[in-house]
Design a protein that fits this description.
Radius of gyration: 22 Å
Structural class: alpha/beta
Strand order of the largest sheet: 2-1-3-10-4-11
Helix content: 40-55%
Strand content: 15-25%
Shape: globular
Order of helices and strands: HEHHEHEHEEEHEHEHEEHHHHEH
Length: 317
């Protein structure tokens, strides 16, 4: 028998869902966020902004650090991380491998935080001089894309060099010992090499192509918790605006968290952009160019359509 009390209770429940769509979805007990060395994340963690935003909802936040992008995305793919920040190349390789990921937001880089460098006394002066040289880079990283794009700009092919795929720590040793002729690398390793090893820049990202970085989430996580992903984007967008206006604090937090030389960190932070934006057609076009470049030279097994895995974020919605 349907009573007046049942009718009123049902109406109240429907009204609540209409007012707050987030109540209609489950909420995770914990959000696992993957980060790479440095950036604004040490400052965000110090400020406790993310934790404070989700604590009233009963959601815990766990931070997990990675050396670079590919292992972070693999962690998202297998479900051990929910949300993370990477450069332009890792999502391309991940999508080509049918990883369960979604692009959820972007940071438009100014192209100053990654470069191809050589020792100060190297005979290499221009990109064309890389022919026949042994060059270090992080396989599947944004530095991989920079190297490929730089070779194309110089009229060289991948077969014109001796690739040396090395993680940043190993590449640092190889560069210092002279085991490689050049190194495609990002900050803070770039800034450290400039200051400690007097490394000379052959080309920055901005000299070769237009790079972007991305916030990535697991596809299952996005499907199940879209309002949580939107909230994360909103928080990091606000933190990005704060970071752009508080670079001394960002540098101090990063130096404290990583132990990296403060002067290198200050150089890194000074040339960084932290503004988080929705992924628009211009960003998709740029990322598709990366994917097409990799497919063209056989670095990925098949072409991919970047827009297939883009999640639309509308700030304020």
């Amino acid at each position: 028998m349907i009573t007046r009390r049942v009718i009123i209770a049902s109406a109240f429940a429907l009204t609540a869902l209409a007012v707050d769509p987030a109540r209609a979805e489950d909420k995770p007990a914990e959000i696992r966020i993957g980060t790479q060395k440095g950036g604004l994340f040490p400052a965000v963690r110090q400020r406790h902004t993310v934790e404070d935003a989700f604590k009233p909802l009963g959601i815990k936040v766990k931070w997990i650090d990675f050396q670079f992008g590919p292992p972070l995305l693999e962690a998202i793919n297998v479900g051990s991380v929910d949300f993370g920040f990477v450069g332009d190349s890792p999502p391309i390789f991940a999508q080509a491998g049918a990883a369960n990921i979604r692009y959820v937001a972007a940071v438009k880089s100014e192209g100053n935080n990654q470069a191809i460098i050589v020792p100060p006394d190297s005979p290499i002066k221009i990109l064309a001089d890389l022919k026949g040289k042994r060059i270090a880079f992080g396989k599947g990283s944004s530095a991989h894309n920079l190297l490929v794009a730089a070779l194309e700009k110089a009229g060289l092919s991948w077969s014109d060099i001796t690739p040396a795929p090395l993680a940043p720590a190993d590449a640092t040793v190889a560069f210092v010992k002279g085991a490689v002729d050049a190194w495609s690398i990002w900050d803070p390793y770039l800034a450290l090499a400039e200051l400690k090893e007097k490394a000379r820049v052959i080309a920055f990202d901005k000299d070769v192509h237009k790079p972007n970085a991305f916030y990535i989430a697991g596809s299952d996580f996005v499907a199940k918790y879209p309002s949580v992903v939107a909230k994360l984007n909103t928080i990091f967008a606000a933190e990005g605006r704060w970071a752009d206006a508080h670079r001394e604090e960002v540098a101090s937090a990063q130096a404290e968290a990583t132990g990296v030389d403060i002067e290198a960190i200050k150089r890194f932070v000074a040339r960084s952009n932290y503004q988080v934006v929705p992924i628009d057609q211009d960003i998709i076009k740029g990322q598709q160019a990366v994917a097409d470049r990799f497919a063209r030279i056989g670095l990925i097994p098949k072409p991919v359509n970047v827009s297939d895995i883009v999640w639309k974020w509308t700030p304020g919605s």
